[in-house]
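Methods, example record. To illustrate the input and output format used throughout this study, we show the complete record for Transmembrane protein 181 like protein. The sequence lines were provided to the predictor; the line carrying structure tokens was produced by it.
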Amino acid sequence: MRSAFSQFGDMFSEFGKNIAPTYYHDRCERSVQMRLYTMHKREFVLAISGFFASFGLFVFIGLAGPPITNTITVNATNLNPKLNHSQMATGPFVLRSPAVSTFSQQLWVIARIILKHGDDERFNKPFHVSVTIHGVTDQNKIVVVLGNQHSHNRTRELHCFNSVCEEFTVLHLGFLDYAHYIITVNFYGLERIEENYNMKDVVFYFKTYNPSFTKIEIWFRCIFIVLTFATSCWFAYSLRFFYFFDWSIEQKWISVLLPLLVLYNDPVFPLSFLVNSWVPGLLDAMFQATFLCALLLFWLCIYHGIRQNERSFSKFYLPKCIIIGLLWLSAFTLASWQKYNELRDPTYNYKVDTGHFMGFKVFFFTLDPFT
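The corresponding predicted structure is encoded as:
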């Protein structure tokens, strides 16, 4: 162990000339001394060991904790009223969801078509899905959520190989107002599939978040918000006697990243269980995109500033801010637009319902090499 620690310390000694302030660093004699400059080998080992111990603890909690989602399977052959053989390709499939609550967060209805006779070949078949939704209150009153006049004939793509077809999403509810949902699904355009291959069954999957996992998520977000806020206060208290002009570039960036980390943990997360609105999702997307882009901007400035003594805003920061700003705009637009459409229309699916999504995605990954 002593030999391993010595080799570990020698490795850090090689980088000491780039970490510790020396004559080629700007204002090295006036910058506030960072604790990193005076840490010993054992302190480095303890800090890294503590990090991996905490990481391992959280991984263990994730593995030992409850599953993230709950899935309930319903077969079309077991529905009531019974469907005859010809209705298996068209419906209507009248589905009653399991009991849900606001802690279930969201509801997905996913379908899989099973064929009786399948050849060893792949085929694709576009078809249409029509959905109506009714909510059932605690007093067993039925409320129209998505009626016939507002239903959409969404196009889906059926991919099949042999006798099994791939799953496709029928609908997605981003907020759960009612204890149960009655969903009526109709297919259009699968009559030829029934004639050629004979549809054996249609399996529907009701997928929601596990309420136990949701409670753990709320506690973890709350704990990390409190810890991050306490760390921010402690950091500001430690540097209260020094002028901001004398702080090192790392200390200045930490003072920006810590408050953004508080927002990254989403203080408004409980609002998503209280109001049926796209605003909490919009804020969550904005907080996540802002923190991640600020972290990327931090690393760009740090690595470029190692040998750059003059850091004027127009030459040093402005080009980086433009590139990161475009990344932030595309990431924020993608996340917020998807959340808004999913709440407005349960049958919305970004894979087939919009061409702009792929354009933003290509634009986002095109900017990545420039960073």
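Annotations derived from this record:
Strands lie at 69-75, 93-96, 107-115, 122-136, 142-146, 153-161, 164-165, 168-173, 180-188, 199-209.
The chain is about 45% helix and 20% strand.
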